[in-house]
Amino acid sequence: MVRYPVSIVRVVVAALCAIGAAACGGTAETAPAPPAPPPPVTTTARPDPAAVGADELGQVPILMYHQLSAQPAGEYDQTPAEFRGELDRLYREGYRPITAAQYIAGSIDIPAGTHPVVLTFDDSTTSQLRFGPDGRPAPGCAVAILEEFAAAHPDFPARATFYVTNDPFGGDPRALPYLAAHGHEIGSHTATHANLAESDPARVRHELASNVAAIGTAAPGVPVRTLALPLGMAPEDPALARAGTAGGTSYRFDAVMLVGANPAPSPFGAGDQGAVPRIRSGLGAVPFDSAYWLDQLAAEPGSRFTSDGDPDRISFPRDSADGPTGRWAGQAQPY
Ligand SMILES: [Zn+2]
User: Fold this and answer.
1) Residue 5 C-alpha to ligand 1 middle, in angstroms?
2) pTM for the model
3) How many Å lie between the centroid of ligand 1 and the Cα of residue 185?
4) Would you give the end-to-end CA distance of the chain in angstroms?
5) Using H for helix, E for strand and C for coil, what is the string for 44-104?
6) What is the greatest pairwise CA distance in the chain?
7) Cα 226 to averaged position of ligand 1 atoms, centre (Å)
8) How many A from CA of 147 to the centre of ligand 1?
9) How far is the CA of 122 from the centre of ligand 1 (A)?
10) CA 158 → CA 117, 133, 149, 155, 180, distances in Å?
11) In sequence order, what are the residues at sequence separation of 6 or more whose Cβ sits closer than 8 angstroms to the Cβ of residue 33?
12) Residue 230 C-alpha to ligand 1 middle, in angstroms?
């Protein structure tokens, strides 16, 4: 397994936090309960894992996007053209999108030989979703771009994870139902984009429960399975970011997403579900951004998660250092 310069990554992440640009991730130290098992999947074809180079213990890039704008306001934003360019690169390099909830549930339903990528969008701005006069996502917003790309590449479905606050997408009541109806995941980004590191426990619970309640009101019946910490800042008690109750609403997240700054481990390994790393994609090159990591993952054979095409089994080369852990061990298929 390839070793990345983790120490360097940590230094850069710390620097980003220090300048307040990205506040990357508290180190949640909770020992979370495992997420619900993935739903059973019926498969008919079982491709040969060796023939496709399957390695389901490899890393998964979880990309983090903010605003799409023709005139980006900051280094976390990018132009629609840059976003299209990154989708094109991902497609050409064999990535296929899954949601964050699918990642953490190990429900990776992409074709044999392809690599999962998670596209996440923070802050629920109208640059990500707004509607045109025809009631469709307006050209140039992220959802429209994803749909255009999927129409041109039917094996690259438009599915992403949107981390939303309590007044998402300009307050348009069509937005959350539209996302839920079109295969996207809706995740929590707190009620008011609160800095949870500076919030007392009652405030943390309120921010998360209120957000889950608001999503449930706007999109009834849609589960909220994952949380992205605003600014990457975890509460003093990281367990409060995983589960709690306030105002009659309970929340329980299968995964808590950070801001920085490296690929996520295989969901079948010993990763920390309370602190899942993401990779930033933005305007121009910054240390350890998506361009850097996609280069690294392409250059290092065996570093990427490569699907065996069968969500029921976990395939990996027999000489891998580790196998699936915990509840996943019974699905191990070394070859
Ligand atoms: Zn945010």
Assistant:
1) 27
2) 0.86
3) 16
4) 16
5) CCCCCHHHHCCECCCEECEEEECCECCCCCCCCCECHHHHHHHHHHHHHCCEEEECHHHHH
6) 56
7) 14
8) 23
9) 5
10) 12, 22, 8, 10, 12
11) 242
12) 4
Q: Do strands 243-246 and 95-98 pair parallel, antiparallel, or not at all (unpaired)? A: unpaired
- Ligand 1 centre from 154 Cα, in Å? 30
Instruction: Answer for the pair 315, 305: CB distance below 8 angstroms, yes or no.
Output: no
Q: Which two tokens stand for residue 222?
A: 């849609």
Q: Give residue 53 CA to ligand 1 midpoint distance, Å.
A: 37
Domains in the chain, ordered, with CATH?
Answer: 56-308 (3.20.20.370)
Tokens linked to 47: 């491709």
- As given in the structure block, the two tokens for residue 151 are 């129409």
pLDDT digits (tens), the chain, 335 positions:
334 443 344 444 433 433 333 333 333 344 455 555 555 554 456 789 999 999 999 999 999 999 998 888 877 889 999 999 999 999 999 999 999 999 999 999 999 999 999 999 999 999 999 999 999 999 999 999 999 999 999 999 999 999 999 999 999 999 999 999 999 999 999 999 999 999 999 999 999 999 999 999 999 999 999 999 999 999 999 999 999 999 999 999 999 999 988 999 999 998 899 999 999 987 666 778 899 999 999 999 889 999 999 999 999 999 987 889 989 999 999 99
Q: What is the distance between the alpha carbons of residues 185 and 281, in angstroms, rounded to a whole number?
A: 19
Calculate how far, in angstroms, residue 231's C-alpha sits from the geometric centre of ligand 1: 6
Cα of 194 vs centre of ligand 1, distance in Å, is 9
Q: Whats the size of the chain, residue-wise?
A: 335
How far does Cα 14 stand from its chain's mean position?
Answer: 21
User: pLDDT at position 7, please?
Assistant: 39
Place of tokens 């429900």: 107
Q: Which helix (H) or strand (E) holds 152?
A: helix 142-152
The answer to whether the beta carbons of residues 209 and 245 sit under 8 Å apart is yes
Structure token digits, residue 278: 């993401």
Give distance in angstroms: CA of 3 to centre of ligand 1.
30
Report how far ligand 1's centroid is from the alpha carbon of 74 (Å): 13
